[in-house]
Every structure is written in C-alpha cells, then in structure tokens.
Amino acid sequence: MSFHEIRFPACLSYGAVGGPMRRTEVVTLANGHEERNTPWAHSRRNYDAGVAMSSLDDLEIVTAFFEARRGQLYGFRWKDWADYKSCAPSADIAATDQPIGTGDGSETTFQLTKTYTSGGSSYARPIRKPVSGTVLVAVDGTPRTEGVD
Question: Taking the model in full, what pTM does it have?
Fold first, then answer.
C-alpha cells in the first residue's frame, strides 16, 4: 500500500466537512420490489478541508502537503474530529469502551474495531492504522499495559 505516515495538518482538518460514505446499488424488480447490494464491505471517508482554510498561508500548507503526497498517489493519516475516539466525543476514553473479542484460552489476537449501534443494528469498523500510543486494551475488564501485560 502506498502510504505516508504523516497526518494532514490538524489546524486545517478541524472544521472540515465530510465523513463516511457508502455505495449502495438499488435494483427495482418487475414486481416493484427492490433489491439492494453494496460492492464495498466498509464505508469510505471523504472530507473537504477547503472550508477550514482562512488565509493564503493555509492554502500554501495544503498545496505543499498534497504536492509531497504527489496528489492522490500516497495515502496519509486524517483525524476525523467527530470520530477519533472509542467513545462519545465529549467522554474520556477507557480500555473497556469497545469489546473486540472473547478469548477462549488459545485465541489471543483480535482485530481492533469500533462498533456503531443504532436500534437493533450494529456495524463494526476495522481500525487498521491506530495512532501509536493511543490504544487502551483491557482483558476481563482489567486495563493492560503495552509491553508489560
């Protein structure tokens, strides 16, 4: 994967508009019913940082950032200010915010996820590139320390 381990400037991502997008294909059948399908397993994020720019200096920062990434050639980190925590934006994060698996004695590796629930439906989004030093983990409700437990 072509990826640069650098985050888009936080001073410009704060105030950007956007968020998750999904692609859903809807086919209307001859009987009037609809069939729905998605070619994407997970949502994709899309943002517009243009609304956060307020000066020519901001424009220069964005231009330099994107030129260094060669436009869309290299991915980069983006902080979504509305969805960067394992809990509500106003709450403090805890190691018990998101259950990610149930061990059975031999299963010790679990995909880090964030689960979104509304009504009776849930969606677990895989977290593929967490920011180093920001992940808190608990086993049986007891917080663990990386490199110690």
Answer: 0.81
Closest CA to 99 of 79, 118, 122: 122
* pLDDT bracket for residue 1 (50, 70, 90): low
3-state helix, strand, coil in the chain (%, to 5): 15, 30, 55
121: tokens are 């439906």
Contact 85, 93 (CB under 8 A): yes
Q: Measuring CA to CA, which residue among 17, 137, 34, 38 is closest to residue 82?
A: 17
Could you read off the pLDDT of 42-52 as tens digits, one per residue?
A: 999 999 998 88
Burial of 123 (0-12, 13-18, 19+ CB in 10 A): middle
